[in-house]
Amino acid sequence: MYDVIIIGAGISGTTLARELSRYKLSVAVLEKEYDIATEATMANSAIVHSGHDPLPGTLKATFNIKGSRMYPKMSEELDIPYMPCGGMVVATSKEEEKTINELYQRGLTNRLSEDEIAILTREEILKMEPNISDHVISALHVPTTAVTFPWEAAIANMENAMDNGVELFLETKVTGITKDTHFTLETTQGEFHTRVVVNATGVYADQVQNMFVPADFEINVRRGEYYVLDRDVYEINSVIYPVPTDKGKGVIITPQYHGNVLLGPTSEEVPIKDMSKTTPSGLEYIKAHAKNSVKNIPYDKVIRSFAGGRASSSTHDFVIDDVKDSGFINIAGIESPGLTAAPAIAEHVTNNLISKHVTLTSNPDFNPYRKKVPRLDEMSQEERNELVAKDKRFGRIICRCETVTEGEIVDAINRNCGARSIVGVKNRVRAGAGRCQGGFCQTEVIRILAEQLDIDYTDVNYRKTGSHILKSRTKGD
Ligand SMILES: Cc1cc2nc3c(=O)[nH]c(=O)nc-3n(C[C@H](O)[C@H](O)[C@H](O)COP(=O)(O)OP(=O)(O)OC[C@H]3O[C@@H](n4cnc5c(N)ncnc54)[C@H](O)[C@@H]3O)c2cc1C
After folding, report:
1. Are 116 and 142 in contact (CB under 8 A)?
2. In the predicted model, is pLDDT for residue 64 greater than 80?
3. Pocket around ligand 1: residues whose beta carbon is below 6 Å from it?
């Protein structure tokens, strides 16, 4: 019997798992996929929003600001990439200038301080952003905006939670929920028993609550499509937002921690099965709208496109509640700014909802720090030499585009919540994330996975069970 079972290992489930590991509780995370963070947490803009945008009084507004203020400490403790770059909402007409003035007031109402929000003139913008569009006349500046690396944020939280005693069950899909004295969860891997259940299942959250009692909210999926530019090919220093509309924040130009730039997202309601598909019309929409904010976009340097599904609630806000005080707790409808808000939601759910059902006694062995990740491209030559002297595999480059060594891949496989597939390696250390998209390094990644997991080359999965790249041997050993 567990004290708490969290269903879903996106950023909501994994930050909660870590938060709960501060206490003497038995906690498990059940995830239906082969790896964690494969849905909304995998496909988003990676922005730690400042909090200027959500409507005052909403859960989104409350947890956005709190979460954004928690990110620097969480990133430092867990060694998560974090780039405080600032953001600006750009106005291209007098009408849009009115909206940025309203957003300025909204930011203050949401509790940004006066030095965390300002209006910039075109001349001030140009000093910071040489590629700003000729149409832009002024901007709302939010310097506390930052960029993280979303799936590493989830992976780091899960790893630290596991280091502190939480259990993770992958490929374990919850299919039924009943309660008598406690909850029984039916899953594809058998039954689990628990005192408290947390539903952090993204676009499936209404369906998962319906397994227990009918949900009084519905989740609609709004797909967002993106282009990715190669690293270091386009100068954008801050997150450039257009003026928001009732469809959302619009096509944003976002510098990424590793030097790429994201263009997107779009916003379109789709069935769940289509949420990860890109479309010609969506990508054309990005081109048509990005040019209002910035110029000189090098579309010949696009290396990839992708799409993700927002879990948009019919209540138009996050759904964070303890259903009928039963111990079935929702972290649902977590669309943007859910990545930003996650650590604050985790703290709130633990202290104010879960605490009503189980006693929170501090875990004296809790260690908030994750073992540092060896990132050779961020090290000095002396530091690299020292590492190579200890282990030659740190001197062998596997991914040339992103300069990733064998030692880094081996490390990513052998941690708690480590990589088990080619995509798992890419998501942890970026081998295959660069301009050749794995064309050069994939065979080497297969070799390393096979060696480290002690399996045959033909048993190495691309993304999930059975997704083998190599089908059979053509020659003897
Ligand atoms: C296009 C787009 C752009 C965004 N940009 C930003 C941004 O820049 N900044 C920001 O703050 N937020 C942003 N967001 C929002 C943010 O990405 C999400 O709020 C956040 O990732 C939601 O995390 P989650 O853990 O709630 O859901 P998810 O990441 O979707 O995780 C849910 C998990 O539950 C699992 N699951 C589902 N059903 C079951 C089941 N029956 N049994 C077991 N497991 C199950 C899934 O496999 C999945 O792993 C964006 C979202 C999108 C889609």
Report:
1. yes
2. yes
3. 7-13, 30-33, 38-41, 43-47, 49, 173-174, 200-202, 204, 208, 224, 265, 308-310, 334-340
